[in-house]
Design brief:
Blueprint (H helix, E strand, L loop, with lengths): L1 H11 L4 H9 L9 E5 L4 H4 L3 E8 L2 E8 L2 E4 L5 E2 L2 H13 L1 E7 L21 E7 L4 E10 L10 E5 L6 E5 L15 E3 L6 E8 L5 E4 L8 E3 L9 H6 L7 E2 L2 E4 L7 E10 L3 E10 L2 E10 L17 H15 L2 E4 L2 H6 L16
Antiparallel strand pairs: 1-6, 2-3, 2-7, 3-4, 4-5, 6-10, 7-8, 8-9, 9-10, 11-15, 12-13, 12-17, 13-14, 16-20, 17-18, 18-19, 19-20
């Protein structure tokens, strides 16, 4: 209302027909961006239950998330499971995204907001498209740069544009439409803590096996079958029982695809509560990939009701082995180099430095 009154006052101040003609020929001044508060996709939350695919496309890469029953998988990584939390975060972000401010209707300025056509070389924009099982589009949005937060009280916001529209907006909400497939994968494999480990055996292809063992969790690990007088590096020895702590991967492939790959080594970790994890490593394109299996056998002595040292009861350890196998079965994981090194340690790899007699 106030804006309309001011416009009338300005018009009344125009004097003379010539001035009026000049004013009419000039480009109308741009209005101050309208403050809005409306959803980008009205009612989307109710429709996302039918979502079957999500495509996140940038000029240099695409991630395709596909629903497989109750699980979302990453097509570009052979259908390996995606992080459920990240998919949920994306859906919540789309459903809650709200337009708050019009930014520009000039296509020449889209690149400044990261909203150029996603197929443009060098573009930073990402096209997010959600479809149902029939291929019907539920949501489609070009996502650009986030707003720089100049105060902690400002909500998160991102620049957006609907495909085919020559208008850019600032929208409040959180969206992370990453186009690197690895950022969507559930990359943690397993976590077997040192306190549980009773023995470790590693063997690099073509070398003799290396074994460490201890009788109880309070004992130090002892090198089994080492040469007399062998000086072991205690720090390197301790790498072995920690080999499966926080184990994650940097890439993944279907295990059958590496059936003919050259063996690189193997390892076996046995816990006091009866869990055995076997790791087989192979070479593929100068990288080491691991296949993993888990099993359980009744430990000796048996685990008592009040088992010390965090050891698990039989039912829990059996369930752990089943959970591990369900997660890793059929997959080969590219491990970080330092983890792959430890899982193929040889005797010379744990040798201590020779003391300088001088």
């Amino acid at each position: 209302m106030r804006r309309g009154i001011l416009a009338l006052v300005a018009l009344a101040c125009v004097v003379g027909a010539g001035a009026a003609i000049v004013a009419l020929r000039q480009e109308a001044p741009k209005r101050e961006a309208s403050l809005l508060d409306q959803p980008v996709f009205a009612g989307l939350a109710d429709r996302l239950g039918t979502a079957a695919t999500v495509e996140l496309r940038r000029h240099d890469g695409t991630v395709t998330l596909q629903r497989d029953g109750d699980t979302w998988v990453v097509a570009e990584k052979h259908g390996f499971p995606a992080q459920a939390g990240r998919v949920r975060e994306l859906f919540v972000g789309l459903a809650e995204l709200r337009l708050v401010e019009e930014r520009t209707a000039n296509p020449d300025l889209f690149s400044r907001l990261g909203l150029e056509d996603p197929d443009t070389p060098g573009a930073t924009s990402v096209l997010v498209t959600v479809k149902d099982q029939a291929g019907q589009e539920l949501a489609s949005l070009i996502v650009g740069r986030r707003r720089v937060r100049t105060a902690a009280t400002l909500p998160e916001a991102v620049h957006v544009r609907r495909p085919g529209e020559a208008r850019a907006w600032l929208a409040e909400g959180t969206l992370r439409p990453d186009t690197d497939p690895l950022l969507w994968l559930e990359r943690d494999i397993l976590d077997i803590r040192r306190d549980r480990v009773a023995s470790v055996t590693t063997q690099r292809a073509g070398a003799e096996p290396l074994t460490l063992r201890r009788a109880s969790p309070s004992d130090e690990f002892v090198l089994v079958g080492g040469p007399e007088g062998f000086n072991a590096d205690r720090i390197r020895l301790d790498d072995l029982p920690r080999a499966l702590e926080f184990l994650s991967f940097s890439d993944v492939m279907p295990a059958p695809a590496l059936a003919d790959a050259s063996p690189a080594g193997e390892a076996q970790i046995v816990t006091f509560d009866g869990l055995t994890v076997s790791v087989r490593l192979v070479m593929h394109e100068d990288q080491r990939y691991a296949t993993i299996t888990a099993s359980w056998s009744d430990p000796s002595p048996p685990i008592t009701e009040n088992a010390p040292d965090g050891r698990l009861r039989a039912e829990a350890t059996k369930a752990e082995a089943e959970t591990i196998n369900a997660r890793v079965r059929g997959w080969a994981f590219r491990l970080p180099d330092w983890k792959a090194d430890v899982l193929t340690y040889r005797l010379e790899d744990v040798a201590g430095r020779e003391e300088n007699p001088s």
